Amino acid sequence: MKVAIAGGTGLIGKALQASLKADGHSCLVLSRSPEEGQIAWDPTSGEIDWEALNGVDAVVNLAGRNIASRWSESVKREIRESRVEGTALLARTLAQLDPKPRVFINASAIGYYGVTREEELTEEASAGGGFLAEVCREWEAAAEPAAAAGVRTVLLRNGVVLSPEGGALAKILTPFRAGLGGPVGDGKQWMSWIALDDVVGLIRFCIEHESIRGPVNVTAPAPVTNAELATTLGEVLDKPSSMPTPAFAIKLAFGQMADETLLSSVRVLPAKAEAAGYVFRFPALKPALEHLLS
Question: Cβ(110)–Cβ(84) under 8 Å?
Answer without folding.
Answer: no
